[in-house]
Design brief:
single chain, about 375 residues, 19 helices, about 60% helix, disordered C terminus
């Protein structure tokens, strides 16, 4: 990221030639932060995109941080170029697809979910049957990603996964790097060490996996892998990337039993945009094991979203230099350690005393494509 910015006057002179992308980047940042001039989001956005269009990788990195911090809204930016009815020129659709592909390849499924009503406009070739086959055979494809995106009404926080995981990794470093404490926690396997959302997820996984195994056994179906409590690392925190994999596995399990009650299954897939609709479909199911699995599938996605919301909120707080939520989060875990009687040397954290967190290295090795929506 930019370490030192030139003055506003110097930058204005530098852009007059119109050939230096870094000059446009600098000007965009100056307007965004109100340095040497009045803060102006419209001009900041214009000059940052101008720099990006000229091939400046740093502009992409700066925009990523803006999205992560919540200062920019991907869905709002996207929808400003396309109406609710999808009315846009071919050129605009092509540019939008290039930008959406950046999000898809970065596995920011939450951003894709927020524009779910426009996905078939951006990807008119999408085929659900192909998507089902690709997921069941573990094949990466655009179709599979779209069906996964549409597999729940609630995965809007599934963004910036790498950043979320790295933040949690560094926040919990005092615990995970203490071999004695970490071994004690993982061997104890005490449910009281889990937060409310984590406990609910743990119970949901038990219901989901037990009902799924019974269904597969009764119908001679080869079961797909779904994380069990033994294989999912719950302590001291759940990795966000593991939650994404768990969601994928739950979807694969759902698709693998599509021939058990085809009419119900097809109706269920057609209601993926609404948890309420899905639960209404569940009420029509006669087989108790199938009913429990479908209900657990809905609950799984709700529980995952709750954990992702908390993690994303921590990331945005960090990006906005508001460290109080981070201290509160790690202190809640320390309180649970004390509750179960695990002795440790750690004292409660404050804003001024947190584990060192640095996410700046993330962008040094970034291979994010330099595509963007153009004006």
């Amino acid at each position: 990221m930019i370490k030192q910015l030139p003055s506003y006057e110097t930058t204005i002179k530098a852009i007059r030639g119109g050939k230096d992308p870094m000059a446009f980047l600098h000007l965009g940042i100056l307007y965004a932060q109100g340095i040497g001039t009045e803060q102006n989001d419209v001009l900041a956005d214009y000059f940052l995109k101008k720099s990006l269009d000229m091939g400046c990788k740093e502009a992409e990195e700066y925009l990523v941080v803006e999205y992560e911090s919540g200062k920019k809204d991907f869905a709002a930016e996207f929808k400003s170029y396309i109406g609710e009815d999808g009315s846009a020129s071919r050129e605009t659709i092509a540019k939008l697809r290039a930008r959406v592909e950046v999000e898809r390849k970065a596995k920011n499924y939450g951003n894709l979910s927020r524009i779910r009503n426009h996905l078939t406009i951006i990807y008119p070739e999408y085929n659900r049957e192909k998507a089902i086959k690709d997921i069941l055979h573990s094949r990466d494809s655009i179709d599979a990603d779209i069906l996964y995106t549409l597999s729940t009404a609630d995965n809007r926080s599934e963004v910036f996964l790498k950043s979320q995981d790295r933040l949690l990794q560094q926040l919990y470093a005092p615990i995970t790097t203490d071999s004695w404490l970490y071994d004690t926690i993982t061997k104890l396997d005490d449910i009281d060490l889990l937060g409310k959302d984590e406990s609910e997820l743990a119970q949901c996984i038990v219901n989901l996996t037990s009902s799924y195994k019974t269904i597969c056994k009764k119908n001679a179906i080869e079961p797909k892998e779904i994380y069990s409590l033994d294989s999912l690392r719950l302590y001291p925190y759940i990795r966000i990337s593991d939650l994404v994999l768990l969601r994928w596995q739950g979807l694969k399990g759902l698709l693998s039993i599509k021939d058990v009650e085809p009419a119900i299954h097809d109706k269920f897939l057609n209601c993926l945009d609404s948890d309420e609709k899905l639960l209404n479909v569940c009420e029509e199911v006669k087989d108790q094991d199938l009913q429990l699995f479908l209900i657990s599938f809905v609950e799984l996605n709700i529980d995952i979203e709750s954990l992702e919301i908390d993690s994303l909120a921590l990331l945005k707080a960090y990006r906005n230099k508001d460290l109080e939520p981070l201290a509160k989060h790690i202190n809640a875990f320390l309180d649970r350690l004390n509750k179960v009687g695990i002795k440790h040397y750690l004292s409660h954290y404050t804003v001024g005393r947190l584990p060192p967190i640095d996410l700046s290295k993330e962008y040094a090795d970034s291979s994010v494509q330099q595509n963007s929506i153009n004006n």
